Each structure stands twice: as structure tokens, then as C-alpha cells.
């Protein structure tokens, strides 16, 4: 797989035919082994014309380990931590872009201690151990969960997000995957009609409904499918995961597909 230090020798994203901005779990990592291999090999064979951005709830350390240990194609940029990290992938790792994160940091205003205190012991929420910079995240037990947590978060002037009935994220007001990927696309000068956003759960909603070309891959969370009803820029793929991404590339005529499609 292409190493980060070699990516400087290929064109900037704004000059490529299209850029894939994709969620990981259930999307880029979804589908059969054969479908994933087909997508990944196709990307690597066309790095001069395909850009890659990971837009995920995962943190940078997880992304690095996935690329190094599982052989994923290296992205050029990352929108991580449910949109609260905007970073470039370099030879030294994943480096946040301060000029793009300044608004995120200001909106968060070091709210971690306040959030943890307000939700300490809340029914159905278990604090995740990762020390995120601009978010607090919980594992959610849907049966035990008391929805008063949402009001507690709103009283702090922050946003909450439930996805896949398993995760509860507390985020800076107005910050999520959608606004952050749009901020990065504008910063890089990528034509908006040459971007494909891909996802499968509710934490992808703001990205898929952002007005950029988008795909909800097959087997997406039903709540996401319902929320996207009537959004004309979204392709609802039949195929799950990696195959659903390629289906959308064809539907939007973004790039020639692998031989055989």
C-alpha cells in the first residue's frame, strides 16, 4: 500500500478526477473480503486520479493502526472523531490542521470535565476510555438508556449524537462530519461535484446530507435511510460496504470502474 511519505509525488486532491470521503466501519470496511480487495486495489492503481479521505468516528491512532496492520490504502486526509479532528496524513503520522480546527476548539471550550460530571452514572451510558480532544463518547445500552441525557447535554450548550443504537457522542455545538468535510473540501479547493461521501449510520447523516454527492451503502442503519428520504444528492446503494461505494461511483459517473464492472 502507498506510504504517506510517497503521497507527495502524486497530484493534489483538487487536481484528481474525484475524491472519496468515506466512513470506515460498515462502509469502507464493510462488505465481503473480495469486495474490499477490489475497491482497495482499484484505489491504489489510480492514486493519480483518486483522492482518499477517511471521515470517521474513530481516532487518529486507530486509523494509523488500521492502515499499518490491515493494509488499508493510506488516506491523504482524515476527518476523525465524528468531525472534531481535521488532519493531514504525513510521513510522521496524522497531523491536525490548526487553521481548520480553531473553530472546533473554540466551540468545545474544554468542556470535557463538564460533560463527564453531568453524565456521571447516567443510566445506559458507559464512558469510553479514549481521551478525545474535542468530544466525549459513551457506549450506549439502548434498553437501559434514559433520554434525559440529551437535555443535560443541550443545557451545556453542546450537541449530542446517537448512532447505531450503540454510541452516544457529545460534540461541540454545530460540529459533526458534514460541516468538517465541507470545511476541508473548501480548504483544499476540491470541486464539490468531484467528491463522493459514503456512510452507513446516523453519525454519517450530516455528511451525506451536506449537499455533496453521497451514498448510503446497502444495509445502512434504517434510521439513516429514513432521515435521508428525499435528499436528492444521495444514492441509496443496493450493495453493502465497499461494493456500494463502487456502485455509487458508477451512478454519479465519477471515474472508470475496475475492469469487469
Structural write-up:
The chain has helices at 24-28, 33-45, 60-70, 98-108, 112-118, 148-155, 177-188, 205-208, 222-227, 241-251; strands at residues 18-22, 50-55, 77-80, 85-90, 93-96, 125-127, 136-140, 159-163, 167-171, 195-199, 214-218, 234-240. The chain is globular. With 261 residues, it is an alpha/beta fold. Strand 4 and strand 5 form a beta hairpin. It is built from 10 helices and 12 strands. The two termini are 23 Å apart. Helix 2 packs across helix 10 (241-251). It has an 8-stranded mixed sheet, with helices on both faces. Strands 6-7-9-8 form a 4-stranded antiparallel sheet.
How can the largest sheet be summarized? Answer: 8 strands, mixed
Poorly predicted runs of 5 or more residues: none
- Tally the beta strands: 12
Shape: globular
Helical fraction: 25-40%
Q: By helix and strand content, what is the structural category?
A: alpha/beta
Strand order of the largest sheet: 5-4-3-2-1-10-11-12
Classify the beta-strand content into a percent band: 15-25%
Radius of gyration: 18 Å
- Specify the number of helices: 10
Order of helices and strands: EHHEHEEEHHEEHEEHEHEHEH
Cα-to-Cα separation, first versus last residue: 23 Å
Which whole number gives the mean pLDDT? 95
Which helices and strands, and how do they pair?
Blueprint: E1 18-22, H1 24-28, H2 33-45, E2 50-55, H3 60-70, E3 77-80, E4 85-90, E5 93-96, H4 98-108, H5 112-118, E6 125-127, E7 136-140, H6 148-155, E8 159-163, E9 167-171, H7 177-188, E10 195-199, H8 205-208, E11 214-218, H9 222-227, E12 234-240, H10 241-251
Parallel strand pairs: 1-2, 1-10, 2-3, 10-11, 11-12
Antiparallel strand pairs: 3-4, 4-5, 6-7, 7-9, 8-9
Helix pairs in contact: 2-10
